[in-house]
Design brief:
6 strands, 2 domains, rod-shaped, single chain, six-stranded antiparallel beta barrel, Thrombin, subunit H, alpha+beta
Length: 192
């Protein structure tokens, strides 16, 4: 009888042990499954973000290429201007407005010559548009401003691909002789 009671007790302990083991194992499997589902969902969302970024990048590249084909003039025009006037790298504040417009816009002149300048602006300029520009620079200890009239000869989105990041080539059409002299003097000091 004792032997039977002992076996029955052992059976009860084994049953409880197996039940606890099954509960712990089931809980562990549920936790691992839930963790894997969360990890898989995060991985899928990350991949979707990467795919969307790649599509946006390809779209920007296509827009830049289309803009270059549409807005870039014959290369001989720009090359001729570069051969005729040496260019100097600058980073100067620029105010401009279209001829017959009172709206003043701001940009930066990134290089400059007696014949024109490279303009970095937040908005794309139209090729062929004429503009009045006011360029400010320090020469010696004096702040100088020159006013030039120019024409946009080419425009493109900058390589960074950011929206509102454009570069345009502007050819000077005319200026007062005093402003031309200031520009020439400024460029001579840049070349020394």
């Amino acid at each position: 009888m004792r032997l039977r009671a002992s076996r029955a007790e052992n059976s009860l302990f084994e049953i409880h042990y197996y039940r606890k083991t099954v509960k712990v194992t089931t809980f562990s499997i549920l936790v691992i499954t839930f963790s894997l589902i969360i990890l898989l969902a995060r991985l899928i969302s990350f991949l979707l973000v990467v795919v969307e970024h790649v599509f946006q990048l390809l779209k920007r590249i296509r827009l830049i290429e289309a803009g270059e084909k549409k807005n870039r003039p014959h290369p001989g025009i720009v090359d001729f201007q570069r051969r005729r006037y040496p260019r100097f790298d600058v980073d100067l504040p620029l105010e401009y407005n279209e001829v017959n417009s009172s709206i003043t816009r701001h940009a930066r002149a990134l290089n400059l010559s007696e014949g024109g300048m490279l303009v970095h602006s937040a908005e794309q300029m139209e090729v062929g548009r004429q503009m009045k520009s006011k360029l400010s620079f320090v020469l010696g200890s004096e702040m100088n401003t020159i006013e030039m009239q120019g024409e946009v000869v080419w425009t493109e989105a900058a390589l960074s691909g950011l929206w509102g990041d454009y570069r345009s080539g502007v050819r000077f059409l005319g200026a007062l002789s005093e402003d031309k002299a200031k520009l020439t003097h400024f460029l001579i000091t840049r070349s020394e």
